[in-house]
Specification:
There is one protein chain. The protein is mainly α. The protein has one domain: ABC transporter involved in vitamin B12 uptake, BtuC. It is 75% helix and 1% strand. It has 13 helices and two strands, in the order ααααααββααααααα. A two-stranded antiparallel sheet has the order 1-2. The longest helix has 34 residues. The radius of gyration is 22 Å and the shape is globular. 41% of the residues are buried.
């Protein structure tokens, strides 16, 4: 006679299946927590401190915004390299409009944001109307906009007395944290609502999955792809304004170093939370992994080349994981179709 209190039998195959299903979803957040714990144990006096948290948030907020900017065209299976080039011109322009041409800081910011939208529109036209591959198109326009930054600045620093209101855009503190961190959370919440709960988000994902099928279902792919590039251009301009507020000088040698970590963050975002598709919270977690890892390594005395090395290796891993997840989903779908 069997006892009613018999211990449940644990099936190893079920555990393995559950683990393989949950690992891609929560692996990256767990990795970030493990990195925080690891460096906190090794560096108890410097790493787990409010000062270090503020430093990480202040340093990586630009990358987080650019990663969100790069994420938007990725929803449609496009890539926008101008997130690393555009910020060079926008942070120079918003300063020169105030110091050289007498614009008030709100007017200068609005001009730069409008220019970012217009530039994104141009990228969208090249990709959708001229049918140029997005990688090639944005590499070309990015190089052009970088040349414009060099021409506008004359290869020299652009500086002058800036109003306090403009400086406080990035320099202010709120609840003991940099105010720019709250900008990132605000942008992330808006993008999350748009991509997950509104029709526009479903349309962007549908275009990214199969543009032909999206067209057959009545989705105007061209309009939404152009809109995605405009959103990317707008967020890149926002990042440029915040960078100018932080540095208070404009120089063409600053900005390009943000391109790789921004793309890494966006690619990492496709490997977690919703594996196989870029998403807002996955992107921020990807940027968080980069920020924690690099900050910890630097505090341990890592050499100056560690950061680009870490970014490059992580990008390769992210692309590899994303490809593996995509192939795994395809096999699962094919298996289910064969079973039916």
């Amino acid at each position: 006679m069997k006892s009613d209190n018999a211990a449940p039998v644990i099936n190893p195959s079920v555990l393995s299946r559950d683990f393989s299903r949950l690992l891609p979803v929560y692996g990256m957040p767990v990795l970030m927590l493990l990195l925080i714990l690891f460096f906190s144990v090794l560096l108890p006096d410097t790493f787990p401190t409010l000062l270090n948290l503020n430093s990480i948030l202040s340093d990586k907020v630009i990358i987080a915004i650019l990663a969100l900017a790069a994420m938007i065209p990725m929803l449609t299976n496009k890539i926008d390299l101008t997130v690393g080039y555009g910020i060079v011109l926008w942070h120079i322009l918003v300063i020169s409009l105030q110091t050289r041409y007498g614009f008030s800081w709100p007017a200068a910011v609005l001009v730069v944001l409008a220019a970012g939208l217009l530039f994104g529109f141009l990228n969208g036209l090249l990709v959708e109307m001229a049918k140029i591959d997005s990688f090639i198109a944005t590499l070309g326009t990015g190089t052009v906009i970088y040349a414009l930054a060099l021409w506008h600045s004359g290869g020299r620093q652009v500086f002058g007395e800036l109003p306090d209101g403009f400086i406080q855009l990035n320099g202010a503190m709120l609840f003991g944290l940099p105010v720019c961190a709250f900008y990132v959370m605000g942008l992330a919440l808006v993008l999350w609502v748009v991509t997950e709960f509104l029709p526009i988000g479903r349309f962007l994902y549908a275009i990214g999955a199969n543009p032909r099928a999206a067209e057959l279902n009545g989705i105007p792919s061209r309009r939404y792809v152009i809109g995605a590039f405009m959103g990317s251009g707008l967020l890149t301009a926002v990042a440029g304004v915040l960078l100018a507020s932080k540095l208070q000088i404009g120089q063409a040698s600053v900005g390009l170093e943000f391109l790789l970590p921004a793309l890494v963050g966006a690619f990492l975002g496709s490997t977690t939370i919703r594996p196989g598709r870029v998403n807002v919270w996955g992107t921020l977690i990807g940027v968080g992994v980069l920020a924690v890892g690099i900050a910890g390594i630097q505090q341990l005395g890592g050499a100056f080349f560690v950061e680009p090395l870490f970014n490059g290796v992580t990008l390769l891993l992210a692309i590899g994981i994303a490809g593996f997840s995509g192939r795994r989903r395809t096999r699962v779908r094919n298996t289910r179709s064969a079973a039916n």
